[in-house]
Design goal:
Layout (H helix, E strand, L loop, with lengths): L13 E3 L14 E5 L3 H11 L4 E5 L11 E5 L5 E5 L5 E2 L3 H7 L9 E3 L5 E3 L4 E2 L10 H9 L5 H6 L2 H8 L5 H6 L4 H8 L3 H12 L11 H13 L7 E4 L3 H15 L3 E3 L4 E6 L5 E5 L3 E4 L1 E4 L3 H10 L6 H8 L7 E8 L10 E5 L6 E4 L5 H10 L2 E7 L8 H15 L8 E9 L23 E3 L12 H19 L7 E3 L7 H11 L5
Parallel strand pairs: 2-3, 2-15, 3-11, 8-17, 15-21
Antiparallel strand pairs: 1-22, 4-5, 6-10, 7-10, 8-9, 12-13, 13-14, 16-19, 16-20, 17-18, 18-19
Length: about 525
């Protein structure tokens, strides 16, 4: 997956060849500090180290993976389990993330596919992507035909003109067209049946941990393109067979070590200062170290804080741009160790709508080895609950109680279950992509030629989102530095960057995109 071989089943996936250059750094050694050990930082560090750059990766936490990391916790019985910030779906169109993981797992055998992506509304409607065709436009037609949330009279009432932007998504033009509209208002303009809006669309907007009223419609439409009308990979996905550290990040740490990189976890960076000769000094609480270049691969609060502490970085306009970045509303992940199993037919993952703040339920022993061993030993279940886009002033105890009450509505057999142990993670560090905010997002390049940014908050002008945007931006940041040194970069793949069906593109045409080709 690291070359030009097609990475999935989609014959129209787009290959982005690497910038040309020598195969490795030659002559004077080159050094890079990568600040942040999440997906973006790991991608950048890997891409640079593989080309012979002397890489030091700094991560404030004791573990790698960032928002997809994991750490040990002691359970009620003295045993150890791995806690995380919750379920993540590794979709088949995450080409660059999967390329990163293939460095240590050539055939991605540490991932396993879940058989379905089921969605359930409290009103009784159920949707599934298991039998939906994967190739557009049959994917959308098949979903509408199979879904109980679409009725013939509802389809007649829809507004086809408002749906035209979905038919020919182009990047980055979609932001020019729809960034000034909220996801909520766009959905309302489509006149979709209410249940279909919940089950077919808001699942995308809430993946950004944001209320649809706050989220740019361009981001939601881009998601619809990536997963539905623009890609033939479908909406089914893979999950790691073991906790994130074991399955993903510790093998990658070993890979980095083999390429000469140094990984310093539990080492927060306090500030970064440019030097008179174009290099940078990276300051931690333990030491100062000079590096030729720097990759800042931080979450939104981390980037804002570090730039505020580094007054010599960038120019005024860039610093103001970073200062305006905002985080999405808080979210809650609750993991419960129950004394009895959930019903045998419960899926590994279930998306929910209409259950208050509960957005999905996972039954971890369905796929994760550690949870399966605990469930086998105790006869119980490990269940995880997600609540996205919670109020800023929400009462944490009340919200955790509310999620558990909703679980008992969704899976009534849990009403009699005793909670043997529980962990709650309340976080607010995902980027917010607000209405009208696209022009204010930072790009990979900065006012310093040797300083680049990476992360899912970074503007890439490519059809990528979420974990795939993080991985892609990491490779783009590394390629920018490698190109400046005359070293060949790394290839990338994306889903098509425009609507894939010629007839649908013609239907959309200039009526929604005047002057844009």
């Amino acid at each position: 997956m690291t070359g030009s071989a097609r990475p999935g089943r989609d014959r129209r996936a787009v290959f982005l060849p690497p910038p040309p250059g020598s195969p490795r750094v030659s002559g004077a050694p080159r050094s890079t500090a990568v600040v942040g050990g999440g997906i973006a930082g790991l991608a950048a560090a890997t891409a640079l180290a593989e080309r012979g750059v002397d890489v030091v990766l700094y991560e404030r936490e004791a573990y790698l993976g960032g928002r997809v990391g994991g750490w040990p916790v002691e359970l009620y019985d003295g045993t150890t389990a791995t806690m995380s910030r919750g379920f993540h779906a590794f979709f088949r169109q995450y080409y660059n993330l999967r390329s990163l993981l293939s460095r240590t797992d050539t055939h991605l055998g540490r991932l396993t596919g879940l058989p379905d992506y089921p969605l359930r509304h409290s009103g009784g409607l159920h949707d599934s992507f298991r039998r939906v065709p994967r190739t557009p436009p049959l994917s959308a037609l098949g979903f509408a035909a199979l879904s109980p949330s679409f009725r013939p009279r509802d389809l007649i009432r829809m507004n086809p003109a408002a749906a035209l932007p979905l038919l020919d998504v182009r990047v980055p033009q979609v932001y020019q067209q729809l960034d000034g509209v909220s996801a909520h208002d766009l959905l309302a303009s489509l006149r979709f049946p209410q249940a279909a809006r919940h089950l077919a669309f808001e699942v995308f907007s809430r993946s950004f941990f944001a209320d649809p009223r706050q989220l740019s419609a361009a981001e939601m439409v881009l998601m619809f393109h990536i997963y539905f009308l623009g890609s033939a990979e479908g909406l089914l996905f893979d999950v790691p067979r073991d906790p994130f550290p074991t399955a993903l990040w510790e093998p990658l740490r070993t890979h980095l070590g083999r390429h000469g990189a140094t990984v310093r976890t539990a080492t927060p960076v306090e500030r970064v200062a440019p030097t008179a000769d174009g290099a940078f000094t990276v300051v931690t609480d333990r030491r100062e170290k000079r590096h030729d270049t720097v990759v800042l691969a931080l979450d939104t609060p981390g980037l804002r804080t570090l730039v505020a502490r580094s007054p010599q970085l960038g120019d005024a306009a860039w610093r103001e741009c970073i200062g305006r970045l905002r985080s999405a509303p808080p979210f809650l992940v609750s993991r419960l160790w129950l004394d009895r199993p959930v019903a045998a037919g419960r899926p590994g993952f279930l998306g929910t709508a209409g259950y208050g703040s509960l957005d999905n339920v996972s039954v971890l022993e369905r796929w994760e080895g550690e949870a399966a061993r605990w469930a086998s030993r105790t006869g119980g279940s490990v269940v995880e609950l997600h609540g996205y886009a919670l109020p800023e002033d929400a009462d944490r105890e009340a919200e955790t109680d509310r999620l558990i009450r909703q679980l008992r509505r969704v899976y009534p057999e849990t009403r009699e279950a005793k909670i043997l142990d529980v962990r709650h993670e309340w976080r607010q560090d995902c980027p917010l992509f607000p209405v009208g905010g696209y022009g204010d997002r930072p790009a990979v390049h900065t006012p310093h030629s040797g300083l680049v940014l990476a992360g899912d908050l970074v503007r890439t002008d490519l059809p990528v989102a979420l974990m795939e945007r993080a991985a892609t931006s990491g490779f783009l940041a590394a390629n920018a530095l490698l190109t400046a040194w005359g070293v060949r970069g790394h290839p990338l793949w994306t889903v098509p960057d425009r609507g894939r069906n010629r007839l649908l593109r013609a239907l959309a045409g200039d009526r929604i995109r005047p002057g844009v080709r």
